Amino acid sequence: MAANSASSQLHRYRSLFGDRLQENVTLANYTTARVGGKADALLIAHTTDELAGTVHTLWESDLSFYILGAGSNVLVSDQGVRGLVIVNRARNIRVDTHINPPTVRAESPGTVGGAVYGNAGAYGSDVQHDLVLAEILHRSLGKQTWTCSQMEYGYRTSILKRQPGQAIILAATFALHHGSPEDVKARMESLSSQRRRTQPPGASMGSMFKNPPGDYAGRLIEAAGLKGTRVGGVEISTVHANFFINYENATATDYYKLIQYTQETVFQKFGIRLELEVELLGDWTISSVNPFRNGKNGS
Ligand SMILES: Cc1cc2nc3c(=O)[nH]c(=O)nc-3n(C[C@H](O)[C@H](O)[C@H](O)COP(=O)(O)OP(=O)(O)OC[C@H]3O[C@@H](n4cnc5c(N)ncnc54)[C@H](O)[C@@H]3O)c2cc1C
């Protein structure tokens, strides 16, 4: 974006949102990997009404924006994001046990919005398995309540993800399954301990790559001998090779170089092109990154 149009856009954000607008905000503080440069402007939405109102105003004014939940599935460029980032903090939850099946309706804070958007999943299940309704605000259709099939889910994708910028998620209702408190507690503990056993602690975005059909990205990266590989402040976890850990002041460029190196190495060894599960967000002038030309563990 040219400097002039960027400053006139900022001026328009200011006139629409006044004191609510924060400027020049470091996005590393809003992502779980703790990397990312500055957004020109940032707004926090505390309720779904505030979120819907903000987005409605922006669409009416034909101004662009990017929405973040917990920032747990995005890699934000070191150059940051031109324009406005909305951080969604709406977090009411309501359980309805008087219907069959019982349901839970959750507003879309980190990480429900991102999960419904990207069909998050683990241990043989995913959002599409239990989603009953998604409440969305659509750019041309207004407020809508969509069924699960209208979301057109696929592996880590949905119609909203395939058509970015057309709609945001305000809340979602999920079906609950009957179980005694003891059974539920035991299942939660078992899944948590499985995670603790198989996944590393530390700042990351969870799985870096999607699993290719019939295989696991983590298995391929490990078989390529890449566990423990470091670039700058990022390391491929020695616990789970699909987790890239920010172990020491990593930059987004470190991440990007390690992503490129991993893709190239896995492709050379197994002929499989790993596809990113995380989204690259912001200003990525990829050619300036010169991805991993300095060799393993270079920077
Ligand atoms: C340690 C760790 C473990 C993880 N484990 C898993 C796992 O087991 N399975 C899995 O699937 N994922 C996993 N993840 C990834 C991530 O947590 C999920 O995908 C999560 O649902 C993303 O939600 P978010 O709010 O952080 O999304 P963000 O990263 O903030 O955003 C991701 C995308 O969703 C969009 N988005 C966010 N909110 C909305 C909204 N309200 N409306 C429209 N679009 C929206 C954003 O614009 C962006 O394009 C893990 C991440 C970490 C850090």
Using brief descriptors, characterize the structure shown.
3 domains, alpha+beta, binds flavin-adenine dinucleotide, 299 residues, 30% helix, Uridine Diphospho-n-acetylenolpyruvylglucosamine Reductase, domain 1, Uridine Diphospho-n-acetylenolpyruvylglucosamine Reductase, domain 2, Uridine Diphospho-n-acetylenolpyruvylglucosamine Reductase, domain 3, four-stranded mixed beta sheet, five-stranded antiparallel beta sheet
Characterise this structure.
The structure is a single chain. A 5-stranded antiparallel sheet has the order 6-7-12-10-11. A 4-stranded mixed sheet has the order 1-2-5-3. The chain starts with a helix and ends in a 10-residue tail after the last helix. The protein is 30% helix and 25% strand. The protein is globular, with a radius of gyration of 20 Å. It is α+β, with helices and mostly antiparallel strands. The protein folds into 3 domains: 86 residues, 2-Layer Sandwich (Uridine Diphospho-n-acetylenolpyruvylglucosamine Reductase, domain 2), CATH 3.30.43.10; 83 residues, Uridine Diphospho-n-acetylenolpyruvylglucosamine Reductase, domain 3; 73 residues, Alpha-Beta Complex (Uridine Diphospho-n-acetylenolpyruvylglucosamine Reductase, domain 1), CATH 3.90.78.10. β14 and β15 form a beta hairpin. The chain is built from 9 helices and 16 strands. Bound molecules: flavin-adenine dinucleotide (FAD). Flavin-adenine dinucleotide (FAD) binds next to β3, α3, β8 and β12. The site of flavin-adenine dinucleotide has 28 residues, from β3, α3, β8 and β12.
